[in-house]
Amino acid sequence: MSDGESRGRKGRYRYGRKRRGLSAVNRLEELFRRAASIHRTEGLLPLTKRATAYAVRRLFRYETYYLYEGDSSTYKRFSDTDFVPKVDGLSFRVVHTNEEADELEAQGFQFGEHAGDARSKLNNGAIAFCVFVGHELANVGWLCTTQQAKDSLDEPPVRVDFSNGETWTGGFSTNPRYRRMGLHTYCILEMIEYWLQKGIVKSKWAVAKRNFAALTAESKIGSVIYGEGRLIKVLWWKSWKERPLPLQQE
Ligand SMILES: CC(C)(COP(=O)(O)OP(=O)(O)OC[C@H]1O[C@@H](n2cnc3c(N)ncnc32)[C@H](O)[C@@H]1OP(=O)(O)O)[C@@H](O)C(=O)NCCC(=O)NCCS
To answer: pLDDT by residue (tens digit) across 28-56?
Structure first.
């Protein structure tokens, strides 16, 4: 998708991105910006809860995941589903660079509000798949074609063979105001169109086993589980184990 242009389900996309790291100061600024945004949109209590959860997560983390994969055969099955939620003012954009994000913002789209540290992710080569309602970002997900891009997302360290064309998908989030309206499903289906058009051979993603909403969404779409993983993090020490499971369609 070219710089801030829209397209239909079977439209064409364009390559292109830039990489540049963000400094610690930028990241801190981004954290404060995000905190201010949560405070403004959700209030003090949710901000306090999320800030505490974030701090605890930096110190200690134990999480188990289902690992999913999609390849050309699953893409084909998905791409037969032509689903567009009945939501007024819906539009879909793929954003490859901060320049494209700037162009969107110049057109009035509020790209930054719900996407967290989107600028940093874009700088690191992650590609944003955005669903807007009017000018408001309602759902976002990310595609990573390099390890650097994946590292810019807060994702488990699942093994992805980028050198053989595998990709990583993650960081999905629907703005709480727009949940259960089919936007996540829609974004995934649009992303799969992109995979098909770009000839992406395989994509992997992970969902925490305790994330009931996301697991239900995967199950509804019919995603394929290929393994499970376990992450333990204590301060800077980290342990990751993954093991294969017999392929099972959710
Ligand atoms: C998971 C998440 C992205 C789903 O977004 P969404 O736009 O509400 O999803 P959809 O409307 O496309 O829902 C698709 C299906 O998922 C399931 N689902 C979604 N949210 C659910 C919930 N809270 N409880 C139970 N099932 C849920 C339902 O089966 C739903 O279909 P239905 O509404 O027809 O029953 C959203 O809840 C979210 O942003 N959560 C926080 C971040 C997160 O967990 N991200 C995923 C990381 S892998």
So the answer is: 777 888 888 788 878 899 899 988 888 88
Cα 152 from chain centroid? Answer: 11
244 contacts: CB under 8 Å, gap ≥ 6:
226, 227
Cβ of 185 closer than 6 Å to ligand 1, yes or no, is yes
Q: Cα–Cα distance between 181 and 185 in angstroms, integer?
A: 9
The residue contributing the CA closest to ligand 1 atom 40 is 173
Nearest CA to ligand 1 atom 17: 217
Domains of the chain, start order: 61-249 (3.40.630.30)
Q: Which amino acid is at 112?
A: G
Find out whether the beta carbon of 216 lies less than 6 Å from any atom of ligand 1: yes
Question: What's the pTM value of the predicted model, to 2 decimals?
Answer: 0.83
Place of tokens 């063979």: 161
